[in-house]
Write a structure and sequence with these properties.
Length: 241
């Protein structure tokens, strides 16, 4: 059981921090963009496929990617503005603004580099991308992401991420397997212990997959379900009926 709990805790810690990073990005707007942003303004271009690393360390550089597409049958010249956190700067952010020339049906992928130098609040890098019809229009479409940024010098973000996910999955799988083959398994199975372990493990795995896919909001919802499951298990196991 201890091995399973350790694996579960590792997965819960990673997905929880990643989901919180995404939530932190919701308040990262900048001024005057926070006031002028108007999603009702029609925009010819489309902003899709935002990809951000889940985790970086002092040893590596992360790449933020997003697609800008022209779905129309005419040439368009939208503007894209990226705001990336930067301690010490006004509003703790820097702006990168550029004009694009998109032919009918064309898609361009834009990238920006981030590192631990972009870390704010000692734990997170935040990016918000705006799409504008022209340089002088207010932004009408936006996407954002949060990246866990750890103060580590020995491992890259991908190495640490692989280690955390591997330790979580192996710990939960090994814990379930050992419990299944324990001498008291049959008695405990009648109380649903194995089913509970499998249920909790599935939620953590799904939450991890959601984070890796950039669906931090879905991951947050799954974590809420996990917390409610813990409450239900506690009430059914320890409180008098």
């Amino acid at each position: 059981m201890l091995i399973f709990i350790i694996g579960l805790a590792i997965g819960l810690a990673f997905t929880g921090l990643a989901a919180l990073s995404g939530l932190d990005g919701m308040s990262f707007w900048g001024y005057p963009e926070a006031i002028t942003y108007d999603p009702t303004i029609g925009t010819d271009a489309r902003l899709t496929g935002l990809k951000c690393p889940s985790l970086i360390t002092n040893k590596d550089t992360g790449i933020i990617r997003i697609k800008v597409t022209n779905p129309t049958d005419k040439q368009i010249k939208p503007w894209v503005q990226a705001m990336i956190s930067m301690p010490g700067e006004p509003e703790q952010l820097i702006r990168h603004k550029q004009e694009l020339l998109l032919e009918p049906g064309e898609t361009k992928v834009l990238t920006w580099q981030v590192s631990s130098d972009n870390r704010i609040n000692d734990r997170i890098v935040i990016a918000r991308i705006y799409l504008l019809n022209t340089q002088y229009h207010p932004p009408s479409i936006t996407r954002h992401c949060g990246i866990i940024a750890l103060d580590l010098d020995d491992l890259t973000g991908n190495q640490l991420l692989a280690g955390l996910i591997g330790a979580s999955l192996i710990g939960m799988a090994a814990g379930i397997a050992l419990w299944w083959h324990s001498s008291s398994m049959k008695m405990l199975l009648n109380h649903g212990v194995i089913n509970i372990m499998i249920w909790l493990g599935i939620i953590v795995v799904l939450s991890t997959l959601a984070i890796l896919s950039g669906l931090w909001l879905l991951s947050g919802i799954l974590l809420i379900i996990l917390i409610l499951s813990f409450v239900s298990i506690f009430e059914s196991s320890f409180l008098p009926h």
